[in-house]
Amino acid sequence: MATSTSDKQKLIGLTFNQDGGCFGATTKNGYSMYNAEPLKMLIDDCFDGGMSIVEMLFRCHYVALVGTGQNVVYPQNKVIIWDSLYKQQIGEIVAESNIKAIKLRRDKICVVLDDKILVYSFSEAPELLSTIETAPNTTGICALSASVDNSLLAYPAKETGGIVKIVNLAKLEVPAVRIKAHNHAVAEISFNFPASLMATASEKGTLIRIYDTDSGTLMNEFRRGSNPAKVLSIAFSLDSSLLAVASSHSTVHVFSLMCLQKQHPRIGTTIERYFKGDVSFLRLKISPTMSTATVCKCAFDANSESVIVVCSDGSYHRFAIDRESGKCVKQTYSFFIELTK
């Protein structure tokens, strides 16, 4: 089916893969996948009625899709396991209600509904392994570890008052780690790659907190700002030395996590220190200024040398980190939505 440029520019969803190396976008005509650096379109698959959610598994050609509901074949309560190489469906999961988010790891599929998370095996015939009750979760908040060694899932607990629970999907008999993360409801959760650390933000959006996933201990607290804002995305660098936080104020704050090195040996011991001061940060401005309805997602490149931001207006921003000066320089501003394969 032919797709017009104006149709393509109506983005529905955005997501990075587990290592930030590529990202996906959904539209009313299907979905596209892009290499993050250098920016390049990788896949452009069309579906009648469009897709609302795409979730990738690293660079594997299997992706999970949820339709917009405009086509009865792709309702909002069905996960399509799609082979993007051979252009065919290889499996599906039908849920009892509309799906809010999907998270993938090599052995699990987590399907997020309004008040629960369904955990399935990742196979051509997915088997339901567990059902986890959550707080009302209309935006699909949760984090799933991609690490082979740490099968953790974090989610807003059914209890009220900013509680997060972390469960080990490989040891479901072990009680979840319970964390009183914030006074307000949790708005964003993210793991570092080994899933040894978890970052959270509340609906107020002024504080970012870092927790040890084993013990639930608060490791550090960063202030994004004094004025409330909607936190849109939180991303650790692959080496766990930096944390990026994108907000509705058209900003991305970059925090140094070097202060955690002595406290948390699992982060690593050979990371070069980028910034002076353990809790200093950089404030990056997304320009032109986004509208309040614009969503943006952030990630780091593989070497923790750049911050990449993609927005639902189709824009792509790349900021290079200058290690000597402790500053970021905007190197790239373009529109990924205008690319063709």
UniProtKB/TrEMBL annotation:
Statement: the UniProt record of this protein carries the keyword Repeat: yes
Signal peptide residue numbers: none
Keyword Cytoplasm set for record: no
Annotated keywords: Autophagy, Repeat, WD repeat
Alphabetical GO biological process terms: autophagy
GO cellular component: cytoplasm
Pfam family membership, one: PROPPIN
Matching InterPro entries: PROPPIN, WD40/YVTN_repeat-like_dom_sf, WD40_repeat_dom_sf, WD40_rpt
Highest taxon listed in the record's lineage: Eukaryota
Protein family per UniProt: Belongs to the WD repeat PROPPIN family.
Name used for this protein in its record: WD repeat domain phosphoinositide-interacting protein 3
Species this chain originates from: Panagrellus redivivus
